[in-house]
Design brief:
Helix content is 37%, strand content 16%. It has 2 helices and 3 strands.
Length: 89
């Protein structure tokens, strides 16, 4: 099924815009570090400790949801890499 919301990064752009405009000020003071799954069509959302759990809850309520996921209060949901450590013999 060809859904125009899913083309050319439209989901990510619409999701970022909705989050910034509608949710950032409301969610960040209370849920910083948690994950939000946001349906870009309706603006409905779920918050959970993991993005998978937030997405599952949102899909239970809205099976056709076009989901944008983010980590509340962070510029990215995940970080690649780790801290440098020195191994000692």
């Amino acid at each position: 099924m060809d859904d125009p919301r899913r083309r050319n990064g439209a989901t990510a752009q619409r999701g970022r815009d909705l989050y910034d405009r509608e949710l950032r000020a409301k969610l960040e003071p209370l849920f910083s570090g948690h994950f939000v799954a946001l349906d870009i069509g309706t603006g409905e959302y779920e918050i959970a400790d993991t993005l998978l759990e937030a997405s599952r809850r949102l899909r239970q309520r809205l099976p056709g949801a076009c989901i944008y996921g983010a980590r509340v209060g962070r510029s990215s949901a995940y970080r690649i890499g780790g801290q440098r450590s020195t191994l000692t013999p």
